[in-house]
Amino acid sequence: MKEILLKYMTQFTSLNEEEQRAVSESVRIGEYQKGAYLLRQGDHHDIKCYFVLKGCVRQFFVDESGKEVTSNFFTEEQAIPVFNDLAKEELSNYSFVCLEDSILVVGELDSEQVMYNKYSQLETMTRKMMEINFSEVQNEFAEFIKSTPEERYRSIIKKRPQLVNRVPQHQLASFLGMTPESLSRIKKRMNKEFI
Q1: What's the chain's Rg over C-alpha atoms?
Q2: Tens digit of each residue's pLDDT (9 = 90 or more) over 134-191
Q3: How far is 178 from 183, CA to CA, in rounded Å?
Q4: Whether the model pTM is above 0.70
């Protein structure tokens, strides 16, 4: 699993093999079972971030009416940033739950700072990865706003096809901003197109 992390260090840093090995051996890897919560909406918590080596994590919140709204799915080689939770006294606006057995790099602010001090290129790597992530989120949000439900589903099939079979359909529908019934109709209509 750590070879994924090594790939990013090779891509975004000029750390030599020995330094890369030292970094990969010092990072904390967590194994989480399906259904495990990384964080619950409304909880206080330590500041952490995650990087998915294997598995799928769902980000969601419960709205005022008590309905769960899926805001994202994180799969292999994606960072799980927790931007709205920068102060420990703040309550989390979201829940993060593993939809599959998952293996994650667990980043904690204090230990990350020690690593950044020792290997300054890691901070650059993290920043570059976050810039890429932020750019993708901005583009996805702009596309989401201007697209129809069917266009959103077509986009998921094109950009993240694995989600269609990995996540429950009612959660995928919520993520796409539609009802499960609407998603079912769209899928049926699209299947007829390919027949």
Answers
A1: 18
A2: 787 788 878 888 999 999 999 999 999 999 999 999 999 999 999 999 999 999 888 7
A3: 7
A4: yes
CB 28 within 8 A of CB 55: no
Q: How far apart are CA 174 and CA 38, in angstroms?
A: 20
**The tokens of 72 are what?**
């994202």
The string of pLDDT tens digits covering residues 71-91 is: 999 999 888 876 544 455 678
Domain range 2-137, CATH architecture: Sandwich (2.60)
Q: DSSP states of 70-138 as a string?
A: EEEEE-TT-EE--GGG-STTSPPS-EEEESS-EEEEEEEHHHHHHHHHH-HHHHHHHHHHHHHHHHHHH
